[in-house]
Amino acid sequence: xxxxxxxxxxxxxxxxxxLTGKSVINFFNKxxxxxxxxxxxxxxxxxxxxxxNNLTNTLKKVDFIILSPGVSLKKSKNKHKLKxxxxxxxxxxxxxxxxxxxxxxxVVTGTNGKSTTCKIINHIxxxxxxxxxxxxxxxxxxLNFSLKKDIWLIIEASSFQLAYSKFICPDYALLxxxxxxxxxxxxxxxxxxxxxxxxxxxxNKNQFALIHKDFVNQYKKRNLHGRLxxxxxxxxxxxxxxxxxxxxxxxxxxxxxxxxxELSKLLKISEKSFIKSLxxxxxxxxxYEVFLExxxxxxxxxSKATSFQSTKFALNNTKNIFWIVGGLPKKNDKxxxxxxxxxxxxxxxxxxxxxxxxxxxQKNTPYYVAKNLKNSLIQILKDIKFMKREKNTILFSPASAxxxxxxxxxxxGEEFKKLSKLYARKYF
Length: 428
Fold this sequence. Notes:
By secondary structure, the chain is α/β, with parallel strands linked by helices. α5 (114-127) packs across α13 (271-278) and α16 packs parallel to α17. The protein folds into three domains: 2-90, 3-Layer(aba) Sandwich (Rossmann fold), CATH 3.40.50.720; 94-278, UDP-N-acetylmuramoyl-L-alanine:D-glutamate ligase; 289-427, Protein-Tyrosine Phosphatase, Chain A, CATH 3.90.190. The chain contains 17 helices and 16 strands.
């Protein structure tokens, strides 16, 4: 199907002019695509010369609609028009696979751990003198890469991208965990899971599907053709004892690393090279980031944890926790601290949804309403001084989105790190 499509003779509508949409337009201009128009629900002035004057007519006539991942068929002001031509919708990743040649690809998706896994894979490949880049939902948009022969591309694929994808076809497709997330965007859990499974749809028998054991039956029922591999944490755990890397020693990365380890074996990277490569991996900012240690106190920035399921990993793999939580909860998200409360000394609630978090945690842990990061840190350090505990971990894992107080999780994480360093100097 892919080989029969002549892109240069096709017509396109680029719908959504954010970072991804602009990368599509730059790609079209660079490769002399002439037959395309643009549309954005909010901005009428971007790429005005290419903007369609009749959206309904354009949707009807074009061969493909390239939809930016930020555009929802449920929330767009033109949702009814888009749904009518849903069969025409593709993504920037589809365009990449249709147009680019002479590259190998690893596509990673799942609810938690995608970015870290992609970065580790890229790190290992580079250390083993394999030319590779990371793109997609992390780093550069995929179409910004000018690929030369024999390049490996590591793609982080979000459920938003995959929901509309038709032509993605990775040599190695990694589906990790799937938990309750982005349901407000997808509508229900079934749609969310279906979007994740898109990474396997076009694979052949010479390509590999690495999938979590919980979803093997679903994989088999879908009549997919990739070679099934089920990563097991036990294999990696035996190897972990040999690693000389503080970040990867933590149990929180065991699941991610089980996929990386299985992939490395498939790529015929030796165990010795695997261990040596990981020695210099430093981890990603805002993802269980141990950034400060003062006397008996460890500071961990886990601002990327925007759902309780993400935070659960941190709570389950950390002890002596002074936990900062709060923000904008995901739809239908619930906090279940069963078997986790033993790790938590006290909880500090921030943000504009205090009542939600009080209701969720008040029966499980002592708590303090701090309202913001500054107040939470001041109170934590006072409590640590008063309690005189031997070991303490200040964990900022908000279990919610940042938009009630911050532009994004990165800004939120940087603020936490800045304040931690400031007040740590005063108290220690």
